[in-house]
């Protein structure tokens, strides 16, 4: 089978792609998918992504942790937002988290409507994810969550890192893949310095969460690959316990 890789640079373009027989990798490296990967790697039973802040409240009587972020900040009244430092073993191990974010969970819900399978990607699980994608008999769409339906640099850089790693195993690449890979090659020796150019980096800097940004740019800290199973994200080899 000839497998293709495509990069969707923003969820606003997702309708242009045929993904019914593809694995979709949702990418929101600053910070939603990084925190999801880290949380699942640290033993969270499941992470349930919901579209709206209000949807979290539907789970308030189940003993789940409720996490809500908008515009980079924790929504008042919720347990935490999408900082990776909230997803440690001590906080989420053995727990189910209900999560909504500005960009990442929106992209995830759009993808799950049509995709064959949906998984989460971040620099934290880059190698584990690529090793798994190499042995799947499916084409891949790398879906960049962007910022409020606009292109962003950080998600595109991660998509380029995946393309660079998978190039030998796949046959067809679209122009977005070529551009993403070229950007990654420019940036890979110092991702943080390159991302000082990005608008989202400046937004996060204003929130004084530089530590989060640096954490999310670490390579291969995690082995977990979160996969959508029903309404929940679980470890690829696990089944949800809700």
UniProtKB/TrEMBL annotation:
<keyword id="KW-0460">Magnesium</keyword>
<dbReference type="Pfam" id="PF04029">
    <property type="entry name" value="2-ph_phosp"/>
</dbReference>
<protein>
    <recommendedName>
        <fullName>Probable 2-phosphosulfolactate phosphatase</fullName>
        <ecNumber>3.1.3.71</ecNumber>
    </recommendedName>
</protein>
<keyword id="KW-0378">Hydrolase</keyword>
<comment type="similarity">
    <text>Belongs to the ComB family.</text>
</comment>
<dbReference type="InterPro" id="IPR036702">
    <property type="entry name" value="ComB-like_sf"/>
</dbReference>
<dbReference type="InterPro" id="IPR005238">
    <property type="entry name" value="ComB-like"/>
</dbReference>
């Amino acid at each position: 089978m000839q497998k293709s890789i495509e990069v969707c640079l923003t969820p606003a373009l997702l309708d242009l792609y045929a993904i019914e027989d593809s694995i979709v990798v949702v990418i929101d490296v600053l910070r939603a998918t990084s925190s999801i990967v880290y949380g699942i790697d640290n033993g969270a039973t499941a992470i349930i992504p919901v579209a709206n802040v209000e949807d979290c409240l539907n789970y308030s009587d189940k003993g789940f942790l409720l996490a809500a972020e908008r515009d980079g900040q924790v929504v008042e009244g919720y347990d935490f937002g999408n900082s990776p430092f909230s997803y440690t073993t001590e906080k989420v191990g053995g727990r189910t988290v209900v999560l909504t974010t500005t960009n990442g969970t929106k992209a995830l819900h759009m993808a799950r409507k049509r995709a064959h399978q949906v998984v989460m990607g971040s620099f934290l699980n880059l190698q584990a994810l690529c090793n798994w994608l190499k042995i799947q008999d499916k084409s891949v769409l790398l879906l960049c969550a962007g910022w409020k339906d606009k292109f962003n640099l950080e998600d595109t850089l991660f998509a380029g890192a995946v393309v660079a790693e998978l190039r030998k195993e796949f046959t067809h690449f679209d122009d977005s893949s070529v551009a993403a890979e070229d950007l990654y090659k420019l940036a890979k020796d110092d991702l943080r310095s390159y991302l000082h150019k990005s608008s989202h980096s400046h937004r996060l800097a204003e929130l004084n969460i530089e530590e989060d940004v640096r954490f999310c740019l670490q390579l291969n800290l995690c082995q977990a690959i979160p996969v959508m199973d029903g309404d929940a994200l679980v470890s690829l080899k696990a089944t949800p316990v809700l």
